[in-house]
Amino acid sequence: MAEIAPLRAGDPAQLGPYRLTGLLGEGGQGAVFLAEDEPGHQVAVKLLHARFSGDPKARSRFAAEVAVAKRVSPFCTARVLDSDVEGDRPYIVSEYIDGPSLSAVLSAEGARGGADLDRVAIGTMTALTAIHQAGVVHRDFKPANVLLAPDGPRVIDFGIARALDATGTMSSTAIGTPAYMAPEQISGAPVGPAADVWAWGATMVYAATVRPAFGQDSIPAVMHRILNLAPDLGALPDPLRGLVAGCLSKDPSLRPASQQVLAHLLSLAGSLPRPGAGRDAAGSEDATMLNQGAAAAAESARLLSSPPPPLPPFSPSRNAPPDPSHAQGSSQPHGLSQPQGSSQPQGSSQPSGLPVPGPPPPGMPGGAQPPGHGAQPPGGPWGTAPGGPGWPPNGATSPIGDLTRPPARGRRRGIGVLAGAGGAAAVALVVAGTVIAFQLGDEAKPKPPPVPVGRTGGTLRISATTTTNTGGEIDPSHSFTGTDRFLPKQLFTGLVDQAPDGTFRHRLATVIKPDATCENWSITIRTGTTFSTGEAVDPQAFARGWARSAGTALGAGPVLMADIKGFTEVSQGRATELSGVRATASGLEVALTSPNCDFPARLADPVFAPVPRDAGKPDNGAYNQKPIGNGPFKLGEYIRNRSVTLVRNDAWALGKTRLDQVTVQLNSDTAAARAGLAAGQYGWVQLTSDDALAVRGQSGLTTRPMPFTRMLVPLTARGPMADRNARLAVSYALDRAKISEVFGGVYRPAHGLVPTAVPGFGTTRPCPSCDAPDPAKARSLAGQAGLKPGATVRLYVQESPIYQKMAAVVKNQLESTLGWRIEMKSTPITKYADYRKALVAKDASGLAFYAWGPDYPGPYTMLWSLLGSTIVASEKNQYSNLAGYRNTRFDQLISSALRNGSAEARTGLYRQAEKTALDDMALIPLLYDGRGALRSGKYVGLDLDYDGDPTLSTAALK
Question: What is the CA radius of gyration of the chain?
Fold first, then answer.
């Protein structure tokens, strides 16, 4: 029962027909009294403080509280019974909840655990889901505002809650309780339901530990930790621990929605009780909450068909607006995360990404394929980005989280399926009579990488960005981007890997062979190799590792595995094995849901690595932070957010590394790291965008192009860019070499859409307007498009150092060359959803900065994701064809390429598709990204690999 204090001197005895009998509590806005109505029923009466009664704004807020509370389902809060907000003493009457607050129970009885903690988690998230479904953001969710009623938790005090506006977010001031405030509340950024999800996560930590997740000393210290440090999750157990970690992502776009959290909690709780089933009292309470949760999550039912929320990516999908130059972070070798934390578009029951393009099936105008899952690049010229999703992914960082990702799951988008068989005559649906095999030769034995001249022994100390996974996972199933991907590459060896030029090389696979349709693949695996513990690396180990990755929403599995049969069942927890992956005596038989002759190119990703039997389920935290692998190194010591020690693995199948040990210092201060390298403290320092000009020409600097292209997206649906001549005029007016100089020349001028780092696209493409500026031709084309000097053209840009630098140069060049008036439309880098919404709005027109890269070394997820006709972006989906481009020939070329068994022929078809788009100037390429590092002259065989990571397995002391 709630503690009731006697009335104080000055407290009213009567308000309208209600007789006040005691004081329940008091806050900054008003006091809450226990009262009785005329029939004698107990009610709670909230009275606005007298000092506010004459304040119109305070009265307005008080009235709004009534309206907000009435919108919320009554089972999850205190139902409003009556109110008088116009009288001399404004008050609100609600039902009286005869139960203590969660904070009082925790203070009196200590931390919750086991079923008690589960009940609190499900009950509070059920209430929060109902609140959000009513279009309300609470903004002060905390243990003191949760009442533990006999029929389940109730959430009270909507005094600072607000109804969502039309944009789905709302303006914010730093209002709330500091220990439970989300970073965006502290920083004054717009606040939406994600802030309540954060507060719920912080509340669960407190419920399980009776310690605030970010400390309980001074308010400035707590706020600093919230903004910059990882939460202290204490003894919070799995699987709730992983879910809460995702809810405490610094980036609100990477947190799962309340519906997703509830869906995951309900799936963990098991089936709902059957009506009439005999249960004890506790079971009855569980049943009540589960059924309330099911009712509140009617909208969430659809989410149960998706993987549990990525707690990034690259969602995420590994698709995100680049530019982490405002925060230190990890490189993103692949794409990032899909907006809104979902691995599939709204209303789609299919996993998203890698759709097989082609004409739409009958009865589905425009097609219904989900989007491709391409990627957006790391932010700086050096390709670095803050870490983020743990979902990451599905995106997965610096302590502040990856703010460059779109509202997405921090993960990359999943791989889609063929929308239908319609239009089969337009494209080749099979590899006509062709059977292709990727194999090593007669000895069927992988060759170790060439060993550079150098001596055996010694330690290499490197500086790298901090890990992005909020749970600290470094196992392959949680691999997504940056350091979280770099480490599993050192600890695990898979079927293939990528050479620095992006081509793949066999490692433990001896043959990778498709059937005639490229839907079914046979993979022969080398025998006799082991993990570092001596356990055999057999086909079952690979099948086990793939299933583990498919069941992890936080890694790249949802992006790269969603077209493997059985993925949906494993990702939803309804199966533990992929039905499309069968381990045989000699290898794996893999069945896809649609043809894809590019399939082997993704197998270099760590999510396809084998794992030992002790790896357990995807939420096995002990293994995830101390994985046992079969790579060139094994884990020596791992101190989260500080350092990782890698030790030579003498059981490595491909030989032995020359180095005894590598110490990876997880460091966000690259200036200090650069000084450490000069002093001999480090042998390798990963660079960020802020270092570009400072290290230009410095001894030991190594750079390489990365698979990401920065571009201008012309919005072709309406406005000036609907005319092809206008788009060409823009391209001819731009001096890409001068734009490159802004970034120290590390971002190189782009001559095509597909990055030069992608195999087969390293040469200049047929894009005359990209090769050199031609002001006279630009002005002529602008005139043909009817855009005379003085014409106004919008330029959409995200507010980040990189984009703002680019925008300043582009604006100047277009205005000086063409005489146009460039109208800048800026959006904060943290608000990708708002940026995208502006680009797909009905009145959108002009040009927009964007960046993208493929999820694996191939052009398919670059071209189709951005330009496929059946995946044009709109407000109702999350597709990435923002240009609104539609071209039948382009679609047919991509579809034919995906089903062609010849790698050379596929590349030729993709190049034709790119030329088709460049002829239309469907996208205007600007720059290719680059990566940089400083290395000591004491080492040989140490360089940047395809992902921009150091080549540790070939490094040696001179």
Answer: 29
